[in-house]
């Protein structure tokens, strides 16, 4: 039988549950930390102190890979899954994420001198920081997540044993099948459903509360941690295989504006402004990702804090102000990983179509906006499957006035003409992203202008200036400047999508308040060809993507 792996932070119970589970399954138990100590004839603390963490990680990698090759229950070290070669080796195994909130884990192990990463100061804070850094990786690798705080080990062992047995029954033996054609969606789809439920549980119960509290509760710093973590994941081949069950769904491909999308759900602009995680989004199950918004010149954005959670409302308020490294830097980063449009391989190493959103630099006068956008277009077009023209951020003074007839006609006319100059045979499609706060007559004017200018589609909508739908507990956020997203925007975005779809032949990408699979289905039913997520991804985690894919 294939080895069962136990992962989780220190104090989650890997060494405690491992032997019990092994006994229950009738296989040996290997505690990798203990195996390292035996082989080295010294403690982990001594290895860290004498040879440093990098050396320990190399020993850990080798012992872990060796242990997983046998028929055993393997208790990994807490940090082991962060090593790419270990993540690789976990593919195809039942991987059980043992979860314990940091306070419980610290109570269990906080004063153990042989845990070098925990000893010293505040163990709870260290465990929280570790979970923030490692949680996304654990969640992606895990095939089961169980909460061990206040749980009887005997009951936990039965839960895990049942999972290990059903995992073996549900998982095709050969990796080729895991790679999957439409033919094995039935079996794979079922296991994807199980996995999605598990990931949702792990995310909402353990990871999200920690993430929302970590880094002093500053959402932007968590966001930065997550992007950094995802950027690392994108470089980890094992994760591709390990999350295969999430990404492989019954979702039908759809062609929009000449681009083939493997599914309906994509990442909305603003999450990965500088394209740092461009290689990772495919692994979360997204069928496309919109990078940016970038501007012609790099700019810092507004002073912090500038991103706020409205937890009672399922919303976010942000006034980021297009903080970004500039269009040229994004283009260079994408080029450096081989993301080039029109290259022979299908969508390149990103694995999915990439849109790139461009906006206006704050210190460029509105009258000079066209030149600013043109500069960005020229920089990013060689790397984009489509370009999104952001004229709807509420956070650059005056930007939304570019949605007005004359200004929009001039801007889109110039940009579409430039796409034809850049690539006459296959001009990059141009999408226009609009605000949810336009009147119907303003929307109609945008549609007419976009059609006349030769735009390829509409993205509806950006964040709203309205504060309707904020729960009383979030009332203080009504006074923060910025755009509101998430659940308070759901109905309005849906209405705008319905209106747009009814009044134009241009395809529509729906964005705004997709918090559940039902919301996505409603947006598609309202006429969107594709949907995008930002805030729903923050609140529901990666399971939302699989949940939507399972519905289409
Ligand atoms: C923190 C944050 C930053 C954003 N940055 C951008 C951006 O740079 N460009 C853009 O077009 N939209 C941006 N958006 C808007 C989202 O792409 C999306 O259209 C909007 O949030 C509504 O979708 P949601 O309810 O799923 O979040 C941002 C949203 C948030 C919350
Ligand atoms: N389900 C549980 N209920 C109560 N106590 C538990 C439970 N699981 C583990 N413990 C206790 O918590 C302590 C730490 O658990 P354990 O050594 O299994 O953690 P670990 O995940 O192996 O951590 P590390 O990565 O640091 O090796 C042990 O003293 C153990 O008795
Ligand atoms: O979380 C970690 O990085 C570690 C956890 C322990 O299991 C040991 O592997 C070591 O202390 C490192
Ligand atoms: Mg242990």
UniProtKB/TrEMBL annotation:
Superkingdom, taxonomy of origin: Bacteria
Residue numbers binding Mg(2+): 15
Occurrences of domain Dihydroorotate dehydrogenase catalytic (ranges): 254-548
Residues reported in the UniProt entry to bind ATP: 11-16, 115
Catalytic reaction annotation: shikimate + ATP = 3-phosphoshikimate + ADP + H(+); (S)-dihydroorotate + a quinone = orotate + a quinol
Compartment list: Cell membrane; Cytoplasm; Membrane
Residue numbers binding FMN: 269-273, 293, 357, 390, 433, 461, 486, 513, 534-535
SUPFAM superfamilies, A to Z: FMN-linked oxidoreductases (SSF51395), P-loop containing nucleoside triphosphate hydrolases (SSF52540)
Listed pathway(s): Metabolic intermediate biosynthesis; chorismate biosynthesis; chorismate from D-erythrose 4-phosphate and phosphoenolpyruvate: step 5/7; Pyrimidine metabolism; UMP biosynthesis via de novo pathway; orotate from (S)-dihydroorotate (quinone route): step 1/1
Keywords, comma-separated and alphabetical: Amino-acid biosynthesis, Aromatic amino acid biosynthesis, ATP-binding, Cell membrane, Cytoplasm, Flavoprotein, FMN, Kinase, Magnesium, Membrane, Metal-binding, Nucleotide-binding, Oxidoreductase, Pyrimidine biosynthesis, Transferase
GO molecular-function terms, A-Z: dihydroorotate dehydrogenase (quinone) activity
Xref: PANTHER family: DIHYDROOROTATE DEHYDROGENASE (QUINONE), MITOCHONDRIAL, DIHYDROOROTATE DEHYDROGENASE (QUINONE), MITOCHONDRIAL-RELATED
Assembly notes: Monomer.
Family stated for the protein in its record: Belongs to the shikimate kinase family.
UniProt-recorded name of the protein: Multifunctional fusion protein
Organism: Propioniciclava soli
